[in-house]
Write a structure and sequence with these properties.
Layout: H1 15-25, E1 29-36, H2 39-52, E2 59-65, E3 69-72, E4 90-92, E5 99-102, E6 106-114, H3 122-139, E7 153-154, E8 170-179, E9 182-190, H4 223-254, H5 256-263, H6 267-278
Parallel strand pairs: 1-2, 3-4
Antiparallel strand pairs: 2-6, 3-5, 6-9, 7-8, 8-9
Length: 304
C-alpha cells in the first residue's frame, strides 16, 4: 500500500511541517534504463512493483523500448484492431484508453509514482507528462500541442517544414493506471519507427487518426538521447510541482476557506478522481468523425 493521505484535520499551520511535506513530495526519483524489453515483462514488473510498494518506496521512471506489440486498454474494443492476422501480438492490459502500438524506435516512459506523497491530482499528472513531451520535442525544434479530451501530443495546425503535411497527427500517446493512490503505465514518444503497424489499428480508438514520429517530421535523433531528455523533463516538472506545495500549505493555514475551495483537496476527492481516471473513459462512446476526439466529460480525465 502507498502512503496514507493526509486528511484536512491533520494539516498543520507549522511552516516546518509544510517544508517536510514539500520534501516528501520532492523525494528523489530512480530512473531505470530497462532497454529493449518484452511488453509482458514490463507490464508484470509494473504491477508487481506497485503491489509491493509502501510509504517509503522511492518513485521510479522506467525507460523502455518494446518489440512490436499492440496493447488494448481495460475498456478497449477489439474491433479497433483492423487487421486480425498482422503477426503482431495483442496484449489486454489495465491502463485507460483504447488500442495503441509499441515498437522499436519508440521511447516508452513508465511513471511509478506515489501520487498521495507527491500531492498530485491525476489530471495534474497528465498535464505534467504532456508538458514534458512538448518540452522534449522543443529541444529538437519540433512543436507539439494538446487536444481537448484526447490525452497525448499532436502536430500543431500551421506547423512548418516537414511537419506541415502532418498537422493533427499524433506523435505521443498517454495512458495511466492508478492503484492505491499510485500510478503506473505512462507515455510513449515516437522517435524513428516503422509506422505501418499503426495502419492496422484505430489509434487510441480514433478512426483515421494519423500517427507520426520525429523522423517523419525531419528530425533524426538517437533513441537514448530522446529518452534521457524526456526523463529529465519529467523529473524537472515533478520537482516544480513540489516547489509550489509550501505556498499552497501556507495559504491553507492562513485561510481555511482556501482548502475548502480546492487548494488542498481532501483524500476522498483524490480517490474519486483516481477511480474516475482508472475507469478508463472510452473515447469511442462519443461519435467520432474524421479522427476528431470527443469532448471530455466533467471530472473525467480520459486516457488515450
Amino acid at each position: 500500500m502507498c502512503a496514507t493521505p493526509v486528511s484536512p484535520s491533520q494539516i498543520s499551520s507549522d511552516p516546518g511541517a509544510a517544508e517536510v511535506a514539500s520534501q516528501a513530495a520532492n523525494s528523489p526519483i530512480v530512473v531505470r534504463w530497462r532497454g529493449n524489453e518484452a511488453y509482458q515483462t514490463s507490464f508484470d514488473a509494473m504491477r508487481e512493483f506497485t503491489a509491493a510498494r509502501d510509504a517509503n518506496t522511492p518513485d521510479e521512471i522506467w525507460l523502455v523500448e518494446h518489440p512490436p506489440v499492440f496493447t488494448l486498454g481495460q475498456a478497449g474494443k477489439p474491433e479497433h484492431l483492423l487487421v486480425a492476422n498482422s503477426g503482431i501480438p495483442l496484449v489486454q492490459i489495465d491502463r485507460g484508453g483504447q488500442i495503441t502500438y509499441h515498437g522499436p524506435g519508440q521511447v516508452v516512459a513508465y511513471l511509478l509514482l506515489d501520487l498521495r506523497r507527491r500531492k498530485l491530482m491525476v489530471r495534474e499528472l497528465v498535464t505534467l507528462i504532456e508538458d514534458a513531451v512538448i518540452e522534449t520535442l522543443a529541444a529538437y525544434n519540433l512543436a507539439g500541442e494538446r487536444k481537448a479530451g484526447a490525452p497525448g501530443i499532436y502536430v500543431p495546425e500551421g506547423a512548418s517544414g516537414a511537419s506541415a503535411a502532418h498537422a493533427g497527427a499524433k506523435v505521443a500517446a498517454l495512458g495511466l493506471k492508478i492503484r492505491n493512490g499510485c500510478s503506473y503505465h505512462g507515455v510513449s514518444l515516437n522517435v524513428s519507427m516503422d509506422l505501418n503497424p499503426f495502419l492496422a489499428i484505430n489509434p487510441c480508438g480514433y478512426a483515421g487518426l494519423e500517427t507520426v514520429d520525429m523522423a517523419t517530421r525531419g528530425v533524426q535523433a538517437d533513441w537514448r538521447d530522446v529518452a534521457g531528455t524526456l526523463a529529465a523533463r519529467l523529473e524537472a516538472n515533478l520537482a516544480a510541482h513540489a516547489a509550489t506545495l509550501p505556498k499552497v500549505a501556507e495559504a491553507a493555514a492562513t485561510d481555511p476557506s482556501a482548502e475548502a475551495a480546492g487548494m488542498n483537496p481532501a483524500a476522498e476527492a483524490a480517490e474519486k478522481e483516481a477511480a474516475a481516471y482508472a475507469a478508463a473513459m472510452d473515447p469511442a462512446e462519443a461519435a467520432i468523425s474524421g479522427g476528431q476526439p470527443p469532448q471530455p466529460q466533467a471530472d473525467v480525465a480520459p486516457a488515450a
